[in-house]
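Quick entry between incubations.
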Amino acid sequence: MQRTPFDPPRRSFLRRLSLGAGACLLTPFVRTMEAEAQGIVRKRFLLVLQSNGMNFERMTPMEFRRQPFTGWNPAAWDYATSQTLINRNDWASLPPALAGLARYQKKMLIVDGFANRQNGMMSNHGSGASSVTCTPNLNGGEGSRAGGQSFDQYLAAASTMGGGVFRSVDLMASLDSANSSHLAYGPGSGVPLLRSPKDALVRYFGGIRAKDDPMAAAVLARKRRIFDLVRGDIRRLSTSLTGSEKVKLDQYLGSIETIERRTMSLQETACTMAGPPLPAGLGGTPPTIATPIEDLVDAMLAIASEALACGLTQVASVSIATGSDHYGGWNRALADVGQGKSVHALSHGEGNGWDALEKIFDHVATGIAGVADRLSAVKEGDRSVFANSAILWQSNNGGFHHHPGQFRWNGVIVGDAGGKLRADGRYLKVPTSYVKGNLFTQTNMVRSNAGDAHAWADVYCSLAHALGAPTDSFGKLGEEPVKGPVAEMLA
Amino acid sequence: MAKKRSSVTRVLAAFLVVSGTGCLGQIAEDQGAERPKPGVAGVGPAGSGPASARPGASAPQAPGAAPAPGGAQVGQPAPAVVPEPVNTAAPPRLAPLVCKPDLRLASPARIWRLSAAQYAATARTLVATFDPATVSNPFGVVTGSGRFSNEADSGGMPELAADQLLRASEQAAPRAVTDLKRTLPCLQMPAVAADCVRDALARFGRRAFRRPLTSDEVTPYADAVGAPVAAAALDAALGLALEAMLSSPSAVFRTELGAGPPDAAARLRLTPHELASALSYTVSDGPPDPILAVAADEGRLTTTEDLRAQALRLWGTPGASQVFDRFAKEYFQYPLATTVFKASITPVHRPAMLVTDTASFVLDLFDKRKGFLRNLLMSGSGFVEAGTAGTYGLAPPAGGTAKQRIDFPAGQRFGILTQPSFLAALSHNDANDPIKRGRFVRESLLCQPVPAIPIGVVPVLPELGPNATMREKLVAHNQDSCAGCHALMDPIGFTLEQYDHYGQYRTAESGRPVDTTGTLAGVGPAPLALAGPKDLTSFLADAPQVRECFARHAFRFLVGRNEGAADDCALQATMAALGNPDGDVVAALTAMLSSESFLYRARPVATKP
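Done. Structure below.
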């Protein structure tokens, strides 16, 4: 039977995630327990970064939906309407693109209308790292290096959010090995992303051994000897170097020690990753162009949710086909169901393909609902992990037609981060910042200073406050004026 | 050396003291900046600059003979005086090169982590039966902030990279054990003796570390194996040691430490094995091949001639073509054409194919070696294929779908700056971008930095109606405080108005003959008047500033760091080899790779382990 992208195997996916024999058992870690004992809430954040734009017309509750802007004439854009403020939680009908999140409708905050134009006139198929750094990329283009720290890494570096065995768990669902990471520790310093579910399982779960694992002692002794040998070589070479050259080896030494510390800790068990091996196509490394993108997205979301649920990390991300290949895997998925148009063409409104495009969105939405389910199933104290979490689903692109502009960004937030966000089935569309200009070419764009208009960075500031790592200035070095948290987003 | 400021730093320091409302209104002297030589356009005292460049000065000077065809259109006279704003201060430039062999400075000893491509090539060479593509490449994410993707300073070992490296080593080690057992019969004995284990480790280590290991270095690995070892336990024990070797910093970092007695200037010459690695990774992105490894073992890399011969040999390998292709792409940035979205679906635009057109053009010139830079900047030939011919205004070439070398119609194309991929890379979605194009020439071919757009300035082009040309919009925009910087860029970019934003040759814009006139200031006593792209590229092709700038970029790419005062001799040697009309690019790059900048490092101060 031919599998379609809309008949995903996720129903059994969590059960199938496995390392095979001796599947690892995970833990709420000691620090988590200590934190709980002290009444400290350990919040969680998941970033789902999707390529190719989120088509805000498709993410709008049906009550507020307008006809998609499908023409090529920028003069047809209705500036006046786009400058209205909508802040409502009394709507009823989710758009088809978000159908999979229906059971979380009242735990959802849809945000829309935020500006994030960086690098002057950049308006191509994606804005790369600037989508999550809110600062211009170093060399201007989509694929160039980050000009600042990405929001997820801002959180991961915060004392309140950097707990767990891993400061962050960073995954990519992409069929293209050339795809780049938009996430960044800082300017020019990209966060490596794991593309292989198998590698991710091994890295995040396989190195941790349960206390009752009979093989643990032998495995750990072997690892320790390898670490010792490498450490010895690092120290020998280090004596010949000074300054920044020595720092490179110090970093390696620190990395080895971090890995060793993690590897050597025998864990109490709480969460279980058990079941049959990874499905065919995902068991090998890394994914190839033949790998079903739907499976890959499901796998990475499942791994991220497990890492968050078990307290391995407080910050996780899944980047879906960000980088040079914006839609390759989805194009194949569309072809499987007889849709001749590419994702790119559909995003422009060509053909009669909105339904197909919405199903792609809904596949991700359904996956995010699965993450929320998993987090809801794990208790910390008297609440679920989900109750203290926020999941942000956004694109690396903003504006109509899935790209030109970066003038109107939207996203979906699931979870209220411990009651701090107004994720109560709310649709918040702020007035767009730009009141004039050619939206296709991004020339002559005139920015308004209207009070309700906001930069996308303000969404991050709001999330940062809600997650207990407050900042009013994320993206301050960018090209959009940052006002700080959006009052309408915070409870 | 550490206290020396690079030329780049000196220029940037000068920029920090820009005063006045114009971007380049006045540049004060900085104590760290070298004073320009008389007669050289450079950073000068406040209010200075070549007299002819000041407002009211004489008209732009024609570049030698009368403007040649290929610039302004027939029937459209080239204006003698260009009305656009003329810069009020000479553009700053890097300090002039002054080769002082007696200075004998050297850069510090360093290590340089392998790039993703280098790691894959190295792993494949080390363990023949291991396919590195089956594991996540530990160094797959490019970091750093410079133009080139493999900078020596930017490659560290963050935790995830280390984790991935250990994982890859774990996968490769069992295969390495199998390979070793095949080649060493003593490893197949029922009980493997200690000498055999040491021999095996020394052999593998020689290849992994790209140098012989000392006995002291072998010992910890041998101890970990615990010889004598029973055959049944050998795989696990030896595998452990090889796994550690594959993860050693000596395996994944190139070392450039130097050894032997320091010279009078306290410099250490790189060892033959370090030089073999440096040459090989620099030229071909892989570890030393057997010829180079044997040359290092036999001490045949001790003279400059030895090194030059090996470099010349390596430049002829397929790996070298890939490296040069990467250099050209990162330098000229034409692959960015694939990231510039075009708002209109006509004409047919195939940026990825156009990029490969340009890559073929560059590599063809590289293979020919002679006259590289001149042809790169003004050749009337190129490569096209059926899918791109239309962009050049040509019918699809006969003979299948392969790329074909072609002479473009006379007077239409002049080297890489007029290749569609380059033009599209530096364009807007629906229009040309003379600013970016001019900035590229100014910064990347003349090495004259232009200040970044001030923070808070939102560029807005005036609305002049649908029939206004880009030139008219920019001229209207470039008034007041914007004029200083834009005068450094726009008049250069205007010459490339001969092409539209797809890179198509055109003779009209908005229903009027296209105006391709421009000026180039800061390269002589008076701004040069340019009738069009041919004037621009003709000047650049013969300009010593461009040879110098090309040499500087090649240095940064090959040596992995910015050039400093100690590197002027290497740059001058490279420039000399590039000299027109028959400058040999391979000889030029080889001159760099056999220079003292490449050969020597400052003696490090000893530290405790």
